[in-house]
Structure to design on (509 residues):
């Protein structure tokens, strides 16, 4: 008990220090994103890496989650003879929650890890220092392009995930559960509101920002060779996934909470 | 003589680990200073402090008589523009080709057009004894000696007034090491630059240096001209030269 209180104090101090450091890091990212020099070519390169190459995995997870959503809703709702709600549940869950969250988690795994590994390697091999001595600011040259690309690409990925997910649900409903295709589609569009789509896109922007920022942060602060880079990568993925789920809850609360 | 770099009573610790405590050092304009000392004594930390890559806990650093100790990133930029650094591991950008590495400072900081920057890069590659044919290769494809040379070319391409070399010959075979030593002497002379070199290779030190300082236990324990270095009976220098296990440098 004697050692407990000081160590708790140390823990709390360490926590504040880390949070403070992260917040100041975010400030630097935002500043670098809105002040010159800008590197459009590098942003474009990151568009491809973050957006285009994430398409297969995001599309795949969206398709299967839409499909399983249709199956489960049907099996649950048919108990109350409420099969008619399947189209609505699928489209609303997909657009509000599953599209953004699954795309976010996939990107946190793929892109967060890649960014942390790349910047971490540059850090431990002194390439970040080399950049500075060549008068190039790493926040402008490395970090801002990644964060900007991630913020712009995630909404696009989420829209694609929504479409593929809804379509996956539609396929199962029509092919396996015997729904009438035109009635199912009609119900899908009837129940979809602008706010559903907007909330999903807001989530996408927030996820995109934090995933890339956390990847950069952990990479930038990694130390001690290959092992340090490994740790940074793990931390980027874990913290990115956690923050996706956490902010997802709060944004949902903001939009749909009562 | 004009003092180019002046360090006063510099302290730096990482957590509870004190690395530098009370380093004072001066380098004159166009002088070549070599800092020797055993591994892990803080030689790299010292020059990273001068460059502004690490912030000291205490003490002052002056470049051209201007204090740079606590400059903001933005105000430091003109100083970065006049300093070139050859990092211990080369620190070449993996994602860029050899010529893009060499031309990096020219294109990104000095905004030189791409064709001209490429020509410049090839010229500098030639000056460090590398052929144009490797310009399109990537750092991962190069040998250790070639990486050091590309890195040297990158450092001198921005025509700095001060050059830093962090263990330029470590890990190279003796012939390649001597080649690098000669290249350093030649490039520094050609630029008329002030040079600070870190090494624990005595041969390298005596080839490159006008003056030599020894860092040990967080302080400069010996300082003198090359001739004084060759003659001195100072126990630190003697032990450093002979590699004896008995002496003031303990483990
Ligand atoms: N960024 C850092 N964080 C923590 N410790 C460091 C850092 N940089 C250097 N050190 C420590 O400082 C000491 C001196 O390192 P260094 O200057 O690299 O030695 P050397 O004289 O071999 O160049 C080492 O013990 C190293 O572990
Ligand atoms: Mg070192």
């Amino acid at each position: 008990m004697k050692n407990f209180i000081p160590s708790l104090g140390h823990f709390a101090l360490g926590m504040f220090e880390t949070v403070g450091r992260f917040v100041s890091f975010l400030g630097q990212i935002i500043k670098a994103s809105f002040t010159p020099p800008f590197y459009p070519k590098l942003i474009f390169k990151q568009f491809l890496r973050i957006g285009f190459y994430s398409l297969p995995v995001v599309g795949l997870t969206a398709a299967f989650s839409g499909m399983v959503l249709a199956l489960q809703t049907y099996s649950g709702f048919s108990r109350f003879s409420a099969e008619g709600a399947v189209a609505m549940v699928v489209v609303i869950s997909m657009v509000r929650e599953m599209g953004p969250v699954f795309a976010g988690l996939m990107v946190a795994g793929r892109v967060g890890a890649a960014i942390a590994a790349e910047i971490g390697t540059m850090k431990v091999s002194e390439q970040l220092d080399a950049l500075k001595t060549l008068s190039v600011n790493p926040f402008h040259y490395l970090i801002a392009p990644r964060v900007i690309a991630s913020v712009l690409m995630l909404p696009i990925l989420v829209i694609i995930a929504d479409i593929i997910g809804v379509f996956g649900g539609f396929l199962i409903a029509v092919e396996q559960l015997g729904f009438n295709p035109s009635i199912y589609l009609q119900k899908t569009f009837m129940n979809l509101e602008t706010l559903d789509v907007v909330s999903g896109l807001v989530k996408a922007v927030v996820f995109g920002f934090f995933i890339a920022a956390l990847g950069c942060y952990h990479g930038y602060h990694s130390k001690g060779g290959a092992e340090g880079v490994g740790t940074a990568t793990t931390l980027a993925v874990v913290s990115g996934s956690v923050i996706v789920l956490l902010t997802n809850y709060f944004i949902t609360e903001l939009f749909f909470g009562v | 003589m004009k003092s180019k770099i002046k360090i006063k009573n510099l302290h730096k610790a990482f957590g509870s680990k004190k690395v530098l405590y009370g380093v004072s050092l001066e380098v004159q304009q166009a002088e070549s200073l070599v800092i020797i000392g055993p591994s892990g004594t803080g030689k790299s930390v010292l020059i990273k402090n001068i460059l502004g890559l690490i912030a000291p806990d205490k003490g002052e650093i002056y470049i051209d008589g201007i204090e740079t100790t606590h400059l903001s990133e933005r105000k430091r930029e003109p100083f970065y523009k006049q300093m070139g650094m050859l990092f211990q591991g080369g620190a070449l950008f993996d994602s860029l080709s050899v010529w893009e590495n060499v031309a990096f400072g020219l294109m990104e900081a000095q905004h030189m057009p791409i064709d001209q920057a490429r020509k410049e890069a090839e010229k500098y590659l030639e000056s460090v004894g590398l052929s144009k044919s490797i310009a399109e290769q990537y750092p991962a494809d190069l040998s250790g000696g070639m990486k050091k040379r590309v890195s040297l070319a990158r450092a001198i391409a921005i025509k700095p007034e001060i050059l830093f070399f962090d263990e330029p010959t470590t890990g190279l075979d003796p012939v390649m090491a001597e080649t690098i030593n000669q290249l350093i002497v030649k490039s520094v002379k050609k630029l008329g630059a002030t040079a600070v070199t870190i090494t624990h290779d005595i041969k390298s030190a005596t080839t490159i240096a006008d003056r030599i300082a020894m860092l040990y236990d967080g302080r400069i324990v010996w300082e003198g001209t090359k001739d004084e270095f060759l003659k001195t009976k100072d126990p630190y220098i003697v032990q450093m030269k002979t590699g004896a296990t008995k002496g003031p440098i303990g483990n």
Observations:
- The interface with chain A takes residues 48, 51-53, 73, 77, 80-81, 83-85, 87-89, 91-94, 104-105, 108-109, 154, 158 of chain B (CB under 8 Å).
- Chain B has two domains: 1-82+160-251, 91-155.
- The pocket of adenosine-5'-diphosphate (ligand 1) is lined by residues B 14, 19, 37, 39-45 (CB under 6 Å).
